[in-house]
Amino acid sequence: MGIFIILMGVQGAGKGTQARLLSEKYGIPQVSTGDLFRAMKTQDTPLAREVQEIMKRGELISDELTNRIVRERLAQDDAQAGAILDGYPRSQGQAQALDAMLRERGQQVKLVALLELDRHLAIMRAEGRRFSLDKERTYNIYFNPPQYRVAGVWLDDKTKEPLIQREDDYRDAVVRRIDVYFETTRPLIDFYQAQGKLVHVNANQSIEAVSEALIQAVEQHR
What we know:
- This protein has about 220 residues and is an alpha/beta fold.
- It has a single domain, classed as Rossmann fold, CATH 3.40.50.300.
- The chain contains 9 helices and 9 strands.
- The chain has a 5-stranded parallel sheet, with helices on both faces. A two-stranded antiparallel ribbon has the order 5-6. A two-stranded antiparallel sheet has the order 7-8.
- A hairpin with a 2-residue loop joins strand 7 (about 150) and strand 8.
- The longest helix is centred in the C-terminal third of the chain and has 15 residues, at about 205-220.
């Protein structure tokens, strides 16, 4: 049986970081719908072109299309032994679709880890993120700021080049997304709680402490 793990949590809770650590630990891929959508902007496949047209119109990606994208990703060879799902499912409908697609393979979600973080702290973690131009170094101007700041511009410690703030990390966008998360996540939490698969993890700890808690939870559910 494959190891399929869902990481849930408000933006800034550290899902991406913990997904990468779990991926390395268990040798299974991190599957992020955000990364999949971004990758499709430059791909030339029928599915990618469909996504590109929707994005051009400024419309939201439907559950049905999101499920197709995830199904296609999980069909790849590296996901046969499992995957760390980051950012999916986002609704009970998507959760039911995931259960169905895994059931077809004789598999199931093993664990749903809810990384819990206070709203204000979540906003600071997300809005404060800055990246080096090569994306290899990540900072947070509130919690681990770079050494250099010139005329209000934060600079990379290594190259002294200006750091990047993603558009979806601008404060207004972060606040909207976080508020939507808290409003819409409860049914999904209840869905997995009823299945006995939900584990609560305090995300307001060190990366190492959160990672240790997640690994313990995975081992208990294998």
